Design the sequence.
């Protein structure tokens, strides 16, 4: 075994240095510190993050907060509330209540996935979940439009209410498209922005159309 | 020793997000592996110190071999996964400029004159995919304004199923026929050709779902639909040899394309009194047949008026 004992490195060659990954040394401590805090703090932290992103959507400046700390809570809440408000809006509300919720849900998530894949295939530098996050959060103006439409429909459903609803939905649709374009188009090569903007336009157009043609029975 | 390396793996660095959980997962995994190896090496050294001789050494060797095999197997599996589940396979088909897309859209309505040598077809999938989605949106609009009620299924599911089913199904069928008739066309080219041929359908349906005159629809059907069919037929004819083969291929494509437009117009665009009859029952006197140029607003007014009249009867 004398030969095998010489496997180790000889003493006169200095082997020194530091191979530390800062994230690794920090993460065990962080786990413990967030586990011990009360549940209220955890929930409030997440709610504040979601609320901050809502503000970013309503006033789209060139900040990267939406992109850096993506989360899917906001899109889920918006999607579910929009789908709930769009329910029960057809002539035969007895057996169309179910499919309408699923329809809206599937449209939003399937559409967002398709747009994300499209922007990645066109050479975008944004990641999958970041793009989903931005598209989901930009549904906020349309959810507000849905609320307004429902309130207007409570008052009556004549020509005047239709015109009001048309103006509100069109304005919110433009806002949604502009907000999501402001976040997503920067990650594309400059001459292909139109190719990425068109599917986003189509996506929000379909949602706006569903909101505009909603008539409660 | 082992798989944990201090070298940064460049293929994971294309992600610009700092907090994506894919990166965190990788780092945690590497941390765990390094800790495990340190722990193992420490335990092995202790064992070696206590039991000098073959037993300690064999145990350490066996553990290292098993460790190596696990690392290699995991690396191979992740490489195979990233090879086949990569969307980069589709990337070359999306490499277009907006100008090119616009040119191809306009060209899809212009039949070529030279059918004696093979015409070039761009194998691109962005334009066709966007056209199919646009057709889905237009169909949805048409179904909503005509109050189409679909019992088992959803409006959106029907629209998506119809459009994608036509695009993929008819492309595959014509590709199969082209294989039988010795035409020189690949599957991607066929998908691209048929996709751009849907541009005529989009225009026709967009106009005729909003302006409801049957004669206008027939003019658009023959004119716009005919032009885009002629273009597809001319391109296919230029790539096929032999009269019988050309006839079979182009006849089938022309028939399917024109019939699809006819089907889309009539199946998703019901007349008003049909719906009212089924809702109100036999008490209602039948309405006169009117042209479907009633906007959405007065539809609701008409419904409420009809209900009120039915109640008073």
Sequence:
């Amino acid at each position: 075994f004398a030969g095998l004992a010489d496997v180790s490195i000889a003493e006169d060659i200095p082997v020194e240095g530091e191979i530390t990954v800062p994230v690794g040394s920090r993460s065990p401590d962080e786990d413990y510190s967030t586990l011990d805090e009360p549940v209220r703090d955890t929930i409030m932290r997440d709610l504040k993050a979601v609320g901050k992103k809502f503000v970013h959507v309503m006033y789209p400046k060139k900040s990267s907060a939406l992109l850096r700390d993506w989360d899917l809570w906001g899109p889920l809440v918006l999607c579910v509330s929009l789908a709930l408000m769009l329910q029960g809006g057809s002539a035969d509300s007895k057996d169309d209540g179910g499919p309408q919720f699923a329809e809206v849900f599937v449209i939003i998530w399937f559409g967002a996935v398709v747009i994300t894949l499209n922007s990645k295939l066109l050479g975008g530098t944004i990641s999958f979940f970041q793009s989903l996050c931005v598209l989901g959060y930009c549904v906020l103006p349309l959810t507000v439009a849905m609320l307004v439409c429902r309130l207007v429909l409570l008052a009556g459903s004549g020509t005047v209410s239709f015109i009001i609803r048309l103006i509100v939905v069109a304005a919110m649709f433009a806002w949604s498209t502009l907000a999501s374009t402001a976040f997503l188009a920067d990650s594309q090569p400059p001459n292909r922005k139109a190719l990425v903007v068109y599917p986003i336009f189509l996506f929000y157009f379909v949602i706006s159309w569903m909101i505009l043609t909603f008539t409660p029975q | 020793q082992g798989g944990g390396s201090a070298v940064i793996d460049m293929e994971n660095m294309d992600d610009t997000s700092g907090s994506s959980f894919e990166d965190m997962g990788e780092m945690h995994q590497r941390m765990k592996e390094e800790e495990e190896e340190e722990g193992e090496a420490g335990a092995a050294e202790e064992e070696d110190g206590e039991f000098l001789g073959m037993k300690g050494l064999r145990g350490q060797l066996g553990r290292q071999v098993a460790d190596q095999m696990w690392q290699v197997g995991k690396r191979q599996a992740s490489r195979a996964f990233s090879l086949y589940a990569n969307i980069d396979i589709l990337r070359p088909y999306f490499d277009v400029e907006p100008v090119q897309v616009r040119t191809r859209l306009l060209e899809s309505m212009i039949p070529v004159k030279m059918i004696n040598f093979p015409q070039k077809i761009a194998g691109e999938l962005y334009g066709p995919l966007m056209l199919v989605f646009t057709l889905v949106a237009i169909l949805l609009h048409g179904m909503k304004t005509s109050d189409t009620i679909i019992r088992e299924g959803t409006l959106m599911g029907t629209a998506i199923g119809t459009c994608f089913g036509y695009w993929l199904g008819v492309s595959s069928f014509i590709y199969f026929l082209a294989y039988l008739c010795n035409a020189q066309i690949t599957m991607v080219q066929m998908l691209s050709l048929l996709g751009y041929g849907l541009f005529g359908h989009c225009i026709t349906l967009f106009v005729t779902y909003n302006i409801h005159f049957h004669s206008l629809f027939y003019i658009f059907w023959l004119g716009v639909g005919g032009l885009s069919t002629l273009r597809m037929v001319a391109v296919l004819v230029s790539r096929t040899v032999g009269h019988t083969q050309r006839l079979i291929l182009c006849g089938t494509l022309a028939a399917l394309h024109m019939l699809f437009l006819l089907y889309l117009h009539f199946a998703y665009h019901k007349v008003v009194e049909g719906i009212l009859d089924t809702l109100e029952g036999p008490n209602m006197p039948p309405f006169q047949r009117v042209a479907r140029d009633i906007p959405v607003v007065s539809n609701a007014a008409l419904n409420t008026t009809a209900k009120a009249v039915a109640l008073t009867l």
Q: What stands out?
A: Confidence is low (pLDDT under 50) at residues 24-29, 93-98 of chain A. Residues 137 and 213 of chain A are 23 Å apart (CA to CA).
